[in-house]
């Protein structure tokens, strides 16, 4: 495996993918509190330091790196492949490499996993047939809440 | 392309609003059969009715022979209990009632809510439910979804194949084109965090804790391990091939590692954390607005 050398960039990309998994992983119930990934990115790219000096310029090409993280099932790995063109990432792919069943499933399921705070769109701006959520509550419950509010005002 | 206006039958049952859409109006005898099926379910499972089977089980231990339609529901509870390490359990009824979610909707918690009974206080092997002490069962996590499936069965047994049942958050779509359903923002009911697109035969169940809440951190989704309402997740949506499964998993996604649920049950989900982050399974049918 002979690869162009941009270790910094590869590390960053690999670390980003680990963060993604971290966020998804650490967010469940208390039962998965121990599944905190704790590893650092470990790019497997070979280094050619000559081009690292000019940090703002990257050679076009395909790059790959591996990162590992620790979970209750042991150590898991993800591979990151990305393509650089004109100093920009034109393609990035995260490939799960876990071997134990749980982690493999987890990585496959969450490769597109989690987003930052979602604000959403106004219902007026989306075309839908129905709405599903919390406004659809128990009739008796809503009534009881209304009564309690009324009591509180009396 | 506008959807042809279906016939909509709206009614209230088990304390919630229902709507059944069909291409042709539902015949009177079919509607009566649906209503009867819902009443039968309520007579077994309602903990808000003093004459229900659940209310009898709450008074004395014993061996209770349940009807065939109970099988899938309790089997799912057993599976969910296992995969969530006890977080999902039908044994939370007394605790929920003590926290204020009782038959009169007092919504006022008692000073010391009852602990959730140990799992081995019951034993389920169809058709027998053995209870070793009085326990107040609560099938709120999956019961309504199961009832939607049962109602679908009634409709199909009467020759009605195409319909969409909407039981306020529990949807089963079997009518025409894919159904686009907004995923209501749990913090702002005028907004959607995404859209689910249900194809024929798919069920969607939504659950959120913000509006059915009645006090400081008090709402209807309890963690069976602690007996307290869960806090991290504020809303879930699950798409599955049965409304029972979608409903049960919508509750489970408040309480468990999604990876375990995904590896055990065939479904897609979206869930929102209290801080607004949203997780989804990669093949969720629809989109999340990020």
TrEMBL record, chain A:
Signal peptide as annotated in the record: 1-23
Stretch list, region Disordered: 26-57
Keyword annotations of the record: Signal
Name of this chain's protein: Calcium-binding protein
Organism encoding this protein: Aeromicrobium ginsengisoli
From TrEMBL, chain B:
Entry-linked SUPFAM superfamilies: ApbE-like (SSF143631)
UniProt KW Cytoplasm keyword: no
EC assignment: 2.7.1.180
A Pfam entry, by short name: ApbE
Molecular functions (GO terms): metal ion binding; transferase activity
InterPro entries the record matches: ApbE (IPR024932), ApbE-like_sf (IPR003374)
Catalysed reactions, as listed in the record: L-threonyl-[protein] + FAD = FMN-L-threonyl-[protein] + AMP + H(+)
Keywords: FAD, Flavoprotein, Magnesium, Metal-binding, Transferase
Cofactor(s) annotated in UniProt: Mg(2+)
First-tier enzyme category under EC: transferase
PANTHER family listed in its UniProt record: FAD:PROTEIN FMN TRANSFERASE, THIAMINE BIOSYNTHESIS LIPOPROTEIN APBE
Protein name: FAD:protein FMN transferase
Gene source species: Aeromicrobium ginsengisoli
């Amino acid at each position: 495996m002979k690869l162009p050398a941009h270790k910094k960039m590869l590390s960053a990309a690999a670390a980003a993918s680990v963060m993604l998994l971290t966020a998804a992983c650490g967010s469940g119930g208390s039962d998965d509190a121990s599944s905190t990934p704790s590893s650092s990115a470990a790019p497997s790219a070979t280094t050619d330091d000559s081009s690292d000096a000019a940090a703002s310029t990257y050679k076009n090409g395909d790059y790959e790196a591996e990162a590992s993280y620790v979970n209750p099932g042991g150590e898991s790995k993800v591979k990151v492949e990305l393509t650089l063109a004109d100093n920009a990432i034109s393609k990035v792919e995260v490939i799960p490499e876990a071997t134990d069943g749980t982690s493999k499933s987890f990585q496959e399921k969450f490769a597109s996993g989690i987003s930052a705070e979602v604000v959403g769109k106004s219902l007026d701006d989306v075309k839908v047939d129905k709405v599903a959520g919390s406004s659809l509550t128990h009739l008796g419950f809503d009534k009881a809440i209304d009564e309690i509010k009324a009591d509180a005002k009396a | 392309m506008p959807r042809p206006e279906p016939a909509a039958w709206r009614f209230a049952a088990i304390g919630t609003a229902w709507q059944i859409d069909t291409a042709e109006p539902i015949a009177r005898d079919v509607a009566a059969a649906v209503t009867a099926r819902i009443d039968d379910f309520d007579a077994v499972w309602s903990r808000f009715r003093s004459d229900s089977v659940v209310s009898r089980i709450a008074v004395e231990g014993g061996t209770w022979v349940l009807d065939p339609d109970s099988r899938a529901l309790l089997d799912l509870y057993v599976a969910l209990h296992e995969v969530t390490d006890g977080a999902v359990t039908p044994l939370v009824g007394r605790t929920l009632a003590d926290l204020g979610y009782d038959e009169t909707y007092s919504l006022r918690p008692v000073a010391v809510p009852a602990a959730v009974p140990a799992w081995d206080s019951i034993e389920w092997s169809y058709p027998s439910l053995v209870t070793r002490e009085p326990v107040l069962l609560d099938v709120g996590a999956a019961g309504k979804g199961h009832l939607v499936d049962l109602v679908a069965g009634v409709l199909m047994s009467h020759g009605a194949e195409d319909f969409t049942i909407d039981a306020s958050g529990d949807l089963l779509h079997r009518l025409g084109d894919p159904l686009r359903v907004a995923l209501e923002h749990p913090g702002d009911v005028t907004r959607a965090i995404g859209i689910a697109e249900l194809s024929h035969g798919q069920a969607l169940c939504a659950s959120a804790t913000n509006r059915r809440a009645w006090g400081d951190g008090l709402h209807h989704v309890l963690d069976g391990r602690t007996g307290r309402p869960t806090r991290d997740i504020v809303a879930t949506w699950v798409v599955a091939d049965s409304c029972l499964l979608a409903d049960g998993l919508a509750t489970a996604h408040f309480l468990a590692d999604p990876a375990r649920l995904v590896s055990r049950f065939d479904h897609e989900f979206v869930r929102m954390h209290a801080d607004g982050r949203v997780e989804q399974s990669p093949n969720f049918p629809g989109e999340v607005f990020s």
